[in-house]
Inverse folding.
């Protein structure tokens, strides 16, 4: 669950005043507004990249207002995918795992399976700058964190090839995890896969 | 098969055509031509100066060889390059964090003041810069006094050379490094943070690797500035002779002939070193950053 309690924050001359919202577990929540309205700022505040001046932010029932982003277990996928241009695809996907303390070799082994599942194993050693738009999307859409704790997308990315879901329906999801399933995920529409458990 | 296009034009690389004939049909933009002519004045001065000294020196290779092989000249060149590298190393260690803070902080009066302080060595005459360094690091100076007590003397000593070079070269490194950090999108750092990397880990694994090119360019610029320094260095450390001091000394004692030979040796060595460094860093940190 994600909760904003009267959150106000300021970034230069930009101000977000008294935002309150509650997103229940399993919900899909769309924030709509014109450019510069503060949609991304809200997402970044959830991720912990901005500290509010007033108000509280709660994640999974715990107050995280002053918790740094690396301790919040919330992943953010930016509109432009935000791939690290100096890392190969396999290292890009494995970055989150490595930051959780996994060794490079182990992370690569782990990620190799995911890449195969997404049909992009052949891109493993390529650099993001040499990928096509669709290839980049697929890489960015790969759940960036190992624990799937929560993921917020500023914009839906394309579904993986062949309409396969990000996690297959019926596959057990780790307990206590918020949805990482994508709104555009084809199978999700037919059958409420991991995304609608709330 | 004849190398030509469908319309019958010959293809470039066709052995039957001389390259200059191939390019004869190019449309030359008049504006660009004038720009080239004006630019040629600047390049021309450098080329003429180099050709001038090279012609004179190569006419007497025996003398040139004798000067180039003298231990005084070799020692001085090594000392200058070494002190410059030492200054750059200190700049990388202390200047990189400063550059990062400047790149990431929002505009404020305090930031503006710090930026102006960083630029001070750029605008000061070098003798003034040297005097500032001397007054601070001399035996009775604010920093010189306590440091001399622990055995670190700056006057007429290697540390004095390094600190003078560090002072004059610092804006070149810090400003280039700051530009590099500014070019790294903040959202890449944000993504790294949300993936579990702390501030320093993000800096080490994302920001710094993406700014490596700027770091090397800044270091090369600063090093070039450092080894070219003369006025600031002699104010605090006339001895040991750095290469500029040696040339000046030889110019005033031995005359033009020897100092010119030393100068030519320095030109050749500097050119070779900088060319190698540029080549080495050509592919460094170069990513196709459509992302």
């Amino acid at each position: 669950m994600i909760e904003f309690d009267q959150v106000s924050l300021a970034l230069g001359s930009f101000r977000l005043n008294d935002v309150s919202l509650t997103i229940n577990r399993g919900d899909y929540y769309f924030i709509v507004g014109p450019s510069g309205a503060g949609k991304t700022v809200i997402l970044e505040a959830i991720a912990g990249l901005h500290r509010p001046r007033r108000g509280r932010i709660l994640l999974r029932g715990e107050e995280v207002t002053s918790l740094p982003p690396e301790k919040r277990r919330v992943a953010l996928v930016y509109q432009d995918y935000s791939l690290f241009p100096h890392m190969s695809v396999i290292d890009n996907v494995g970055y989150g795992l490595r930051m959780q303390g996994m060794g490079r070799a182990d992370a690569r082994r782990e990620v190799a399976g995911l890449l195969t599942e997404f049909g992009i194993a052949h891109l493993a050693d390529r650099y993001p700058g040499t990928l096509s738009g669709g290839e980049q999307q697929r890489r960015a859409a790969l759940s960036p964190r190992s624990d799937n704790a929560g993921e917020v997308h500023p914009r839906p990315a394309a579904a993986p090839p062949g309409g396969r879901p990000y996690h297959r329906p019926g596959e057990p999801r780790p307990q206590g995890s918020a949805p990482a399933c994508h709104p555009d995920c084809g199978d999700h529409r037919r059958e409420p896969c991991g995304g609608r458990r709330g | 098969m004849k190398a030509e296009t469908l319309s019958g034009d010959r293809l470039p690389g066709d052995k039957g055509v001389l390259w200059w004939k191939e390019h004869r049909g190019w449309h030359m933009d008049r504006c660009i031509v004038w720009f080239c002519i004006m630019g040629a004045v600047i390049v021309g001065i450098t080329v003429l100066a180099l050709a001038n000294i090279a012609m004179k020196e190569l006419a007497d290779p025996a003398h040139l060889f004798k000067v180039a092989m003298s231990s005084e000249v070799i020692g001085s060149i090594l000392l200058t390059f070494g002190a410059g590298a030492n200054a750059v190393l200190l700049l990388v260690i202390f200047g990189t964090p400063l550059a990062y803070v400047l790149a990431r902080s929002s505009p404020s009066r305090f930031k503006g003041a710090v930026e102006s302080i960083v630029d001070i060595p750029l605008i000061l005459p070098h003798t003034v810069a040297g005097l500032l360094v001397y007054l601070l690091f001399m035996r009775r100076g604010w920093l010189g006094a306590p440091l001399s007590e622990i055995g670190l003397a700056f006057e007429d000593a290697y540390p004095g050379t390094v600190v003078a070079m560090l002072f004059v070269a610092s804006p070149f490194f810090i400003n280039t490094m700051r530009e590099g950090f500014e070019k790294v999108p903040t959202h890449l750092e944000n993504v790294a943070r949300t993936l579990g990397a702390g501030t320093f880990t993000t800096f080490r694994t994302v920001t710094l690797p993406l700014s490596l090119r700027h770091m090397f360019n800044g270091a090369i610029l600063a090093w070039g500035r450092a080894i070219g320094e003369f006025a600031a260095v002699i104010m605090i450390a006339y001895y040991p002779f750095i290469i500029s001091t040696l040339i000046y000394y030889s110019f005033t004692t031995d005359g033009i002939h020897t100092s010119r030979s030393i100068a030519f040796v320095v030109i050749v060595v500097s050119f070779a070193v900088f060319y190698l460094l540029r080549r080495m860093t050509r592919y460094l940190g170069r990513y196709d950053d459509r992302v």
